[in-house]
Sequence to fold (268 residues):
Amino acid sequence: MTQVETVLSPLLKIRKLHKSYGGNEVLKGISLDIHEGEVVSIIGASGSGKSTFLRCLNLMETPTSGFMDFERFAFDYEEGARRQPTPQQLCELRSRIGMVFQSYHLWPHMTVLENVIEAPIRVRRMPRRQAVAEAEALLERIGLCEKRHAYPSKLSGGQQQRVAIVRALAMAPKVMLFDEVTSALDPELVGEVLALMGSLAADGMTMLVVTHEMAFARDVGTRTLFFDGGVIAEDGPPAEIIGAPRSERLRQFLRRVLHEPAGLGQPA
Fold:
């Protein structure tokens, strides 16, 4: 393989991904390549399949069918397929594809520091002293090292969400998934979380971000996907998808989100 081919090879490859709950097909054959360093913003109305898609990527949800290739993992969910993850592979995959949710999911009975070091010690078998040192360095980066012995209930929502992001980062993931991580925050706290995500993007972290924060998608994202009815209806650079949407369906969605006049995306 040549050096150019190595650079262009996708970090994450998804083919014909389907997910159904009973008779409700939520994902209808998603195919996508994600390259290292991409910041992919995923937009769309509630129920369009965005969150389900993220949960399938780190296998919190098992796809009904489809294929996924990530690093040394290759899983095939077609009927009768043999390449499905073992429990050990599942644990390792989730440590390599970190995920942060709308709800912080911090353990309330553990301090901030204990929340951050738990998985590196238990899953990565990291010595406690090393785990603490790395956790404190991460907390220092986000300005919360002085809160390391506090319990989550003593933190603001924005602080809890930043700790949740740091907890995922402590596993040294290759990809980070963010599922509407600012939607439960008071407006004045949103900026501090987006600033942390922006700094991760600047450091080259590969990220998939389900969001309604169009300014983040436009200014930080390198690519935008518009989900509609369980499919990727539009895929392209943020300036094109957000600034010059092709479909009326996307124009309607953006008018709702941005509160813009009806001429959004139309020629002047």
Observations:
- The CA atoms of residues 200 and 206 lie 9 Å apart.
